[in-house]
Every structure is written in structure tokens, then in C-alpha cells.
Amino acid sequence: MLQYDYVVDPSEAVGRLTTMGERAENSRPAFTKIRDRLLKDQRENFESRGGTFDEKWPATSKQTMMRKHEREGNPGSILVATGELAAAAKGGKGKFTRITKSQVRVGINKRIFVARFHQAGAPKGSRRGTLPKRTLVGITDESRRFSVTLLAKWIEGA
After folding, report:
1. Which of 31, 87, 98, 139 is most buried, by the most CB atoms less than 10 A from its CB?
2. Sequence-distant (≥ 6) Cβ neighbours of residue 81 within 8 angstroms
3. Residue 76: how many CB atoms within 10 A of its CB?
4. Closest listed residue to residue 52, CA positions, set 133, 150, 117, 143
5. Which are the contacts of 131, defined by CB distance < 8 A and separation ≥ 6?
6. pLDDT at 52 (0 to 100)
7. pLDDT tens digit string along 35-72?
8. CA distance linking residue 24 with residue 156, whole number of Å
9. Residue 107 parent element (H or E)
10. Residue-by-residue DSSP string for 89-106
């Protein structure tokens, strides 16, 4: 009888898995690239008036346009009064980013109080009337796939 014995030495596999575990515990290098991608999406979303996250913003109401013109002399763009929200949404002053070993967070600083109302919208009957939802922060399917792929490659050491 012909026989072939193959002895498996698990030490190489154990070493690779240990390295992968260490990389998974601290994914900051991958998260830095993911943060940059998410900030780019956020900027493009603001510049396209919601087009990046597939939720085009509704037009500004006539009442709001009149109020903006009277108060600021600017009937201008959607979500631009002082420029503070626009700057934050485009990745400038007022943006929020945090990277830890296990997560990346991107958004608009909570000090820009109006952002939360625009993100969620406000129902009819609220203090200032109806405020349509205008998504400022999100993630596209493409960026989600990019993030998962990049993180997997980082952990694998590729």
C-alpha cells in the first residue's frame, strides 16, 4: 500500500492569525483613509444639494427665502445663512471627525445646532413650521463597500 503522510504545523497559521488580530485591534491607518472618503462624500453631498446620498433636497420655501432675504440680505442657497453649516458639511471648520483604534466617526460638530434639525427634518407645527429633511451626513453604498474592503485588506496585511 502506498501512503503519504502530511504533517501540519499550525504555528505559521497561528502567527498569521495573531498578526491579523493585532491589526484588527488597531485599525487607525485604515480608518484614516475611510474618514477621508466619508468627508469627500459629505462635501459632494452638500455641493450637489443632497444628490450624493440619493435624497435630493426639496427647494427652499418662498417664506424662508423672504425671511432669509430680510434677515441676512441673502436669498441664496439652500442651507446657507451664515456659512457655518456649509463650511462644516464641506469638511471645513465645524466638521467632526474622530478616529480610535476600533472606529471612525464623521459628521458635523454638535455646536452647529441647526444641523440636527436639517438632518432629521421637523414636523408641521414645530416652532418654526415644517422643515423638510435634508440629509447632510450619511454613507453611500459605494463608500460602505470601499470601507469594508479596505478594512479587510488592512486586517489581512495586504
Report:
1. 31
2. 68, 71, 72, 74
3. 15
4. 143
5. 117, 118, 121, 122
6. 87
7. 999 999 999 988 888 888 878 877 777 776 677 666 66
8. 9
9. strand 104-108
10. HTTSTTEEEEE-SS-EEE
Task: Give the other-Cβ count within 10 Å of 5's Cβ.
Answer: 4
Confidence of residue 12 (pLDDT cuts 50, 70, 90): confident
- pTM value is 0.77
CA 118, CA 134: separation in Å to the nearest integer?
Answer: 5
DSSP 134: -
In whole angstroms, what is the distance from residue 106 CA to residue 121 CA? Answer: 20
What 8-state DSSP symbol labels residue 60? Answer: P
Integer Cα distance of 1 and 36 in angstroms: 62
